[in-house]
Amino acid sequence: MRLIGRIADGATDTSATAVLLKDMESEVSSESLVLIENGGEGGKIGKVVGVLRRGLGRNELLNLSRYRPDIAYMKYGGEPSSSREVFSFQISLIGEVEEREGAIRIRPNRKIIAPRSPVYLFDDDENPLERYIAPSAKQLEWLDAHLDGHPTWRVPADKFYVPYHVGVFGATGTGKSWFTRYVLIPFYIRCGLRVLVLDWSGSDYVPYYEDVVPISEVAQDEISILKYLSGITDKFAGNASMQDVFDQLVCSWHDLLNRVHTCDELYEEIQRYIRQYIDQVDKRWRSNAERASDRIFRKLKPITSARSWEQEESPLC
Ligand SMILES: Nc1ncnc2c1ncn2[C@@H]1O[C@H](COP(=O)(O)OP(=O)(O)O)[C@@H](O)[C@H]1O
Ligand SMILES: [Mg+2]
Q: How far away, in angstroms, is 165 Cα from ligand 2 center?
């Protein structure tokens, strides 16, 4: 580990600022992981892992709130003094390192970070993700991704939280879609989940997958439902009267869905409706209608069994 600076005035239990040692500003960059030995060398109060965010360069001599000799000198082409120049980085704290019975894990930091505490940068061969973050996972998995600038630092993920809600946030062009497409979705699939992607623009995901269903095909208006049923039953077994009956049934489709709770119940309701129709068909044509009905229900089957609509909902929604 390399000492890069010390904690400045005003640190709290959730954030701190590191003043960089001389010339470190050219070596240290944001998003780097650091270790703070809270309370001084060795970490008398504890050891805290954090990430550098938002660097700041200050030079009191170039402060714009008052006119200063250095500013005047600079205006005429001179180079102002760097004697009062300070570079710093804010540190977002990830957590305190807890070492218990030889096991290391990270837990939320609740102690104030002491000003003057030394801040260290991890060397490439001291992978903090493997040493501190990974052992804290309940069900450890690894993303197919590494930390920027450290190809050997693969990013750990906790499989336990996979069914929880996940949001990917960032300004336009920061890689949200890329991350979701190449890291998140493959990770979910590796964890045994099936992934349904809704791509409203049709540009982020559609070009990269073969199994694409246009949104118009999952529309739930009456005509789309009738078309769908017609498609899977060979145009209602080629029977115009049956098409008519299904047309009537589809007119009250949404009421029907409110009455039933499972796919099987829906299937039974459809069968009952068709049976009622067949029972009142003229005897001369009844066997004809029955044959068409048999053919239709040989093609039309409930997909799931005995599961309610509520259970069908993905935990990722
Ligand atoms: N980790 C990455 N490695 C390489 N290229 C990337 C990475 N993340 C994003 N990009 C590229 O940056 C551009 C913007 O990414 P994109 O995912 O479309 O951003 P967003 O969805 O946040 O607007 C794309 O051209 C993408 O290929
Ligand atoms: Mg995008």
A: 18
